[in-house]
Amino acid sequence: WYTPAGKSYEEPGADASTIWASGNAGVVTINTANVTGVAIAGTDKAAKLVTKDLGSLGQLVGQRMGAGSIFTGAFVLDIANPLNSTKFGIPFSAKPVSFTLQYTYQPGTPYRNNRGATISKNDSCDIYLLLENRSQPDAKRIATGWFRSEESVGSFREITVPLQYGALPANAPVYSKPANGLFGNASDPVTHLTFVAASSASGALFEGGVNSTLVINNLRLNY
Length: 223
Description:
Helices cover 4% and strands 43% of the residues. The protein contains two helices and 18 strands. It starts with 19 loop residues before the first strand and ends with a strand. It is mostly beta strands and 223 residues long. The strands form four sheets. Strands 1, 6, 7, 8, 12, 13, 15 and 16 form an eight-stranded antiparallel sheet that branches. A five-stranded antiparallel sheet has the order 2-3-18-9-14, with no helix packed on it. Strands 11-10-17 form a three-stranded antiparallel sheet, with no helix packed on it.
């Protein structure tokens, strides 16, 4: 974890050249950072992601809830179009078979939408890894590994999420499929990897449970 130049909050990584990013730069414009390093043992730190209620100011612009998120890529704040701020993915060429990490999760209440209305819905954490081929203007999804859960997990639980190469089955959740519908297969080269973890699965819609908290540690790729 390091402190970016001119900022008062930490970001994941050793310095500004890190492959990691978060949404902190956006959240701190109206609140405090919601992605922080939390000590586990000695100098070991895990990533703590918290969904924050951004109050009346966030509500005015349809961004009442700010989910904590950490991802591979970069965050370049775009005030006019906040969703354009996240630049997912890093250059990558290997083909892991799964990923493993440890996590805890506490879904928060009440659950609010982007305008602050309370909704009868349980929050869920979202953790996923995507391999893509971006050699053409329209990216192809090569492999997908997705974990989404609303279960409360109080102590660290280790999970291993398999990567499925090629097209997902027709009955796979819509959220796990590429927006452009394009899949590659296991023989296609990989050019980019995207890993995302978020304290609220619908954070991109600026909704979620107040104080939903996801902590992740010890991420590794398995071959």
